Amino acid sequence: MASQNRMFDQKQFLLGTFASNCSGGMTVTKVPERWQNSWDNNLKLAKLLDAAGIDFMLPIARWIGYGGETNFHGNVLETITWAAALLAHTRDITVFATTHTTANHPVVVAKQLATIDQISNGRIGLNVVAGWNKPEYEALGLKLPDDHETRYGYAQEWFDIVQALWSRTEAFDWNGKFFQLKNVLGDPRPGTTVPIINAAGSDQGRAFAVRNANFLFTPAIDLSRSKDEIVALKQQGRDAGRDVDVLTFSHVVCRPTEKEANAYLEHFGKTNADWAAVDNLVNLQFAHAQSFPHDLLALIRDRMAAGHGGFPLTGTPEQVADGLTALHEAGFRGTTLSFVDYVEEFPYFRDNVLPLLEQRGVRVAPQAVAAE
I need a labelling partner for 21 at 20 to 30 A (CA). Which of 95, 172, 238, 255 fits? Predict the structure, then answer.
């Protein structure tokens, strides 16, 4: 049997990357050096992250872009095949597959991830998406339910089937509201617990997350607000008999001086932002999703361009480390990182920010992780 997934057995602040499978990554910009999400680039990044002791990679599942000059997220590598291939080329890092419940049958997904569990020796994770993006539903010939109750009712039954396939050893029938299955059996099954992520903003979504996920994924916009939110979410989990941790996402612009970092942020995140794509993204969030608090969404339009609304980590290595330390102290279990160009910029972060986090006890060195 595989050892326990490192998302569970590390006691440090978790670090990952987000959306490297998508064109532009998390940055809605027109600059020519913006992230090119080719397989070659993703493989280079995965090997860099794995060697540096970074904990996980998290993709976004997209089926239609956001338009604008760049058609942000118009080019996307499918996440289950992406995860399987990356895990076959790495040793320690966890890689998540992001799966829309409405676009992927639970019996198929359960077997896909059980297969990848063997490929990776227990390093696959699952990010469950109940769905919110109406144009994507339309692209797939589906209808987006207007109410969150239906979306999450469907997602709950979908997830219950996956869990049943991973735990039951005898074939079974399933007669539910959304699925009717005959004589199904999950074989093979994962050899260890698969970490589950769910991003949710609505009351129904967060109730789903605390019932089912190990990690709830939510934006960090105001850290004083986040502290209270994390306490409430973890208590909600305990009330449901579960331990739930909270992850967030952030965008890194790390340079030797604060002036250089701010100048580059202005260049790619304002002067050369793809504002048409940003506005399409913000408008869709307002219309169909509650991932971001709507009272703050209009105020963070610039953040949507620079890092898809992620927590800004801009400045010198010391300032970026301060920002990560603040997230840790606010109660977040970890954060994803994104860059304008992940492969070009991560090595500077690795060499100059990770040592500071280790000195502060926020992270431990990769060798120490391996020895535990």
Answer: 255
